[in-house]
Amino acid sequence: MTRLLDIRGLRIEAQSREGRTEIVKGVDLSLNRGEILGLIGESGAGKSTLGLAAMGHVKPGCRITGGSIRFDGLELAGADARLLRQVQGRRIAYVAQSSAAAFNPAWRLIAQYCEGPVQHRLMPRAQAEAEAVSLYREMRLPDPERIGARYPHQVSGGQLQRAMTAMSMSCHPELLIFDEPTTALDVTTQIEVLAAIREVVRRHDAAAIYITHDLAVVAQMADRIKVLLKGREVEEAPTREMLAAPREDYTRSLWAVRNFQPAPRDEPAAPEPILSIVGVSASYGTHPVLRDVSISVPRGRTVAVVGESGSGKSTTARVVMGLLPPTAGQVVFDGQVLDPLSRNRPRTLQRRLQMIHQMADTALNPRHRVREILGRPLEFFLGLRGRKKEDRIRDLLDQIELEPDRFIDRLPGELSGGQKQRLCIARALAAEPELIICDEVTSALDQLVAEGILRLLDRLQREMGLSYLFITHDLATVRSIADEVVVMQNGAVVEQGPKAQMFQPPHHPYTEKLLSSVPEMDPDWLTRLLGQRQMQEKGAA
Amino acid sequence: MILKLVLRRFAIGALTLLVVSALIFWAVELLPGDIASEVLGQSATPETLAAFRERNGLTDPAMLRYLHWLGGALTGDFGLSLANQRPIAELIGQRVANTFFLAGYAAVIAVPLAIGLGLLAALYRGSALDRFISTSTLAVISFPEFFVAYILILLFSAWLGWFPSLATVSPGMGLGARLYATFLPALTMVLIVMAHMMRMTRAAIVNLLALPYIEMAQLKGLRRWRVIAVHALPNAVAPIFTVVALNLAYLIVGVVLVEVVFVYPGLGQLLVDSVAKRDMTVVQAACLIFAATYIVLNLLADVLGIVSNPRLLHPR
Amino acid sequence: MNALLKTLRTAPLSARIGMALIAAYAVVALLAPLLAPYPEAAIVGAKYLPWSAEHWLGTDMLGRDVLSRMIYGARNTVGIALLTTLLAFALGAGTGLLAATLGGWFETTSSRLVDVLMAVPSLIFALLILTIAGTSVVALVLVIAVLDSTRVFRLSRAVAQGILTMDYIEVARMRGEGLGWIIRREVLPNASAPLIAEFGLRFCFVFLFISALSFLGLGLQPPTADWGSMVRESAKLIAFANFSSWQAATFGLAPLLPAGAIALLTVAVNLVVDWVLHLSSGLKE
């Protein structure tokens, strides 16, 4: 095997309002022909920047300050536009995270496919079109003959991502850069895209850099894995070796997240429900989004609602909170039927039922300091003022493990993502609620931070006997925190029951599909799963 | 889908025109006292007042007069001028043509120039050209129209003596002579409107260039001109059309001041004179024409925006 | 207050120049009677005197001192523009924020009304109303304030709508907070920067608008000194400008001086506004 890509001591700087910050701090990377390297790290690790740099490209406002990028003997760091044009698209191709944004809305898919090979004078348009159709078929796109005639907004997200992978192959590149290509997709869609990408890369014997934050995904795709943290390399090893025996603590901690288990608690016999959603249907305008949903949350327990985007799980939360009146059915809280609208509910009821949002960023007023964010519910619900209020604010900060003296006067902009989410939890706690609805509270966070939030929620539940309605799309989270599980699809409940039962077969077919689609850390998982599914299809036929 | 949207927009435009025409008509009805005594003054006898009302159709109920006025306006008949009792159509006919000539003259120069320079500024962001354009834009936006006009007069007329300071045109004039006579007012309007147009074009393109699909096109190894021409421009059509139509609408208003400065026999000059003379019917007619032009141009901007949106053009 | 001073210290040169100019205008406007060598409307010499030690900027067509009229003009023109802007702002921002927060019929009606008012160019509308109401200062201020408030309405409604989609508003609503709290404590602090910038832009617009009307002879009426009217009164002098001697050449400057005074103030305000907008866009990051 020959060296295809060789990056040495690469440094990249970003220019921001506050001045320059180094976002890649001297990274080495080498790749052989036909090899797939996984780049993994949390947000801010510099993995996307490194991936783009491998093609000689830096984002506007960034610049390469040191090191070299040699691609097949060509120096790409500081190369002129002419050289870069000969390499980019033609010998190194890029697959972006959001295909919906990366396709030009004004042109048909096939026109965008053909642009590369025709402009690089590799083949005439007719040949490019013929190859497009065969690649679309390889990528298992429906109706490969005709899908190219569609515009980007006319096909679904998973299909568009596969069309983009096909487009990246159009010039038969030697190296492909995949920048989180499945992060925006639902798990069941992700499987199809992963399978298609892996197959096409192997068949065409291309090398690839696969960037992701998901270890289980990278385990399926990569021959070797490199772990990045804040612009530096942590370690690099062949996939199986790293999974079996990670050398560094940081790498090991990335694994640990998946193993989080709440402390066992004594099981009182079936507590009475604190919240019952009874036969609720709802719609946005004339578009129905919930159909006859019934869920009940026992006191002191966690009920997890799982489903993919569009399953109606967040809408359920909005109905419970009185933000969207249901068209049928009712919500019963502690024996009382709740008014469909939040503003008509008595303040004591509003107090006992709190919600935490997915995006802590938008859930905190950027102009309010921590003192005011926590102080307002104390004042509003409990009538606390002055000294008492101040003391309680400090208690709350202690509870969420933020040091009161350091944090009480800060603005949300001066907190990290995890700290913001903790603050949101404290704000909910300030009302002294009995039930908290957690709407995807960990999905915008890095795994380590997310784990901290889960631990915190678990501890608070034990200490205060809180009940949670926990909405998520992530089955790993469900597995770790839920007592009971509700599976939703297309606005209806598909299956529900205690966790132990839900994770044991037999499953409802959709639950089965959902469960089996969650990537596992085992590098053979995808191969095995695809084999199983093929067998089932054969059996069915 | 797209037809529905366009038709809807047309319907809204027509409705707006109707409401505005009503507003223009009924505003005069709010006048304390009545038009006849306002025009003829204290000395008028009851007989002359009655005769005046009869001749100008003021005896009918207001609603009927509105419908009559609107119907007339649609066929180009705006009634009689209160000040001199001549048909308004006769007064304004040539002036409307003059105004549109001047606005068109300015537009033909300003639109391509502004879009071109705006594009260049966006493509070479941070360059000397870009800085020059944004500074001069800021200056010109802040200047009153008459300031620009008098600077030009001082420079090109009083000092250099290249162009006349008064834009005198007569009906029999040839095109060349007309273009020469109206060069300074046209240039004034070009300067005023170009600043806005360049700024807006630049902003539209800069927004567009930051989109992921433009970066994707670069990463395909395409030439710079191709990234711009094939990937950016088709999507820039809608915002640029909007910019142009909005600025043409602005031009139509700016023309009023420029006509006064250069004593140009256009509709704007007539409007200002009539306001001073409180010649209601002429003011109404002129306002209606200006408002209608403005509404139609805005309508055009929206419709072009709808028609050039690929998501609407190719529905699912 | 300290935070404000700190921010001011970070201002770029352009904004500093802008602020200094605005301060200078404010001083001239406030201290006009002390600074002006002659009274506002008194005839103090022969007509059309050129620039001299006695009358620095000469005299006008009635023999009034031009410098004095320029100084009083600062007070009249800027004062009325400021008053009008304040009125337009109170009206537009008030209804705009309310419309966005309340929604429902109030938002629908107010938005439709604004749509109609904005469908016609302000100048045309103003000319129509001034024909009917006559050209008094009160009518002028009211008409322009109402017409201009439509743009403030649009902006403040749009800004508020952007803020209202934020989850923290939902949190406040779920808590059961009243309308007053939501507008005052949740929306306004986040809308202040764009609103301050808009105030500057609106002031420029109103200022230019009043000057334009005065220039057309339909704004402030004589003998009040006002820059727009001064341009109008001295406009024909420009044709007599000749460049044989510098004193004769000053005739050409007669309309340019008041026009330039107008232009300079709007440039200054725009410089500051640009900086404020830049600051507020930085907050979003």
TrEMBL record, chain C:
Keyword Cell membrane: yes
Pfam families linked to this entry: BPD_transp_1
Principal subcellular localization: membrane
Intracellular or extracellular location(s): Cell membrane
Gene Ontology cellular component list: plasma membrane
Gene Ontology BP terms: transmembrane transport
Protein origin, superkingdom: Bacteria
Transmembrane segments: 17-38, 78-103, 123-147, 199-220, 256-277
Domain annotation ABC transmembrane type-1: ranges: 74-277
Record key words, sorted: Cell membrane, Membrane, Transmembrane, Transmembrane helix, Transport
Its membrane topology: Multi-pass membrane protein
Listed PANTHER family: OLIGOPEPTIDE TRANSPORT SYSTEM PERMEASE PROTEIN APPC, PEPTIDE ABC TRANSPORTER PERMEASE PROTEIN
Family classification: Belongs to the binding-protein-dependent transport system permease family.
The protein's name in its UniProt record: Peptide/nickel transport system permease protein
Species of provenance: Paracoccus versutus (Thiobacillus versutus)
Lineage start: Bacteria, Pseudomonadati, Pseudomonadota, Alphaproteobacteria, Rhodobacterales
